[in-house]
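Why should sequence recovery work at all? Because a backbone constrains its sequence more than one might expect. Tight turns favour small or flexible residues, buried strands favour hydrophobic ones, and helices have their own preferences. The token representation captures these environments compactly. In the example below, the structure is given first.
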């Protein structure tokens, strides 16, 4: 499935929950498609979105937000892999980690990642997360319904192709992006 299509379904399923969005094409495409103050667009911080989501999920445990969502890529997840163990240790009930797995480092020219050699769901389970995989757009809504109905921590691996939409770069000040997100949390959490 195309990342663009998957992002639309994910954004519709989680339109008001806090969402940490990984760098590169994912951030640019989601901002172009469904810009929202509930999204923390992470620029140039490869490997960090799951750690940011973990902190948010722990900090927002008593909030009215049902879930805290992290949109992550396979390459970025592999770079910050140790965070999965900490997620399993701390067991944040609201955390949903959605890994858009295209098997490539898209931001640098689609060089292959190691995801083809690793079962990301088995890895997540070994760290204490529940995990599922989905590879078709038709199956994605049901998988997202599972993430809504199931206590976390959860990992949903979403298989995508390497196609990137032509959208503008997101060249905003990260401090402004963070401030907008923090204001959203303060107003709604």
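From this structural description, the recovered sequence reads:
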């Amino acid at each position: 499935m195309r990342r663009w299509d998957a992002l639309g379904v994910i954004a519709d399923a989680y339109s008001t929950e806090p969402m940490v969005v990984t760098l590169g094409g994912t951030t640019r495409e989601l901002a172009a498609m469904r810009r929202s103050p509930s999204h923390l667009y992470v620029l140039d911080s490869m490997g960090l979105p799951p750690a940011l989501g973990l902190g948010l999920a722990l900090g927002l445990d008593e909030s009215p937000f049902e879930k805290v969502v992290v949109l992550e890529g396979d390459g970025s997840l592999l770079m910050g892999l140790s965070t999965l163990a900490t997620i399993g240790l701390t067991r944040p009930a609201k955390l949903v980690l959605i890994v858009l797995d295209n098997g490539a480092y898209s931001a640098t020219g689609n060089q292959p990642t190691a995801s083809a050699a690793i079962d990301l769901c088995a890895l997540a389970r070994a760290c204490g997360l529940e995990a599922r995989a989905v590879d078709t757009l038709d199956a994605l809504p049901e998988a997202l319904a599972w993430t809504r109905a199931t206590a976390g921590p959860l990992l949903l691996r979403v298989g995508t192709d390497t196609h990137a939409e032509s959208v503008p770069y997101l060249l905003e000040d990260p401090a402004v992006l963070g401030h907008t997100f923090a204001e959203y949390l303060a107003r709604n959490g």
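A few observations help interpret the result. The chain has one domain: 3-188.
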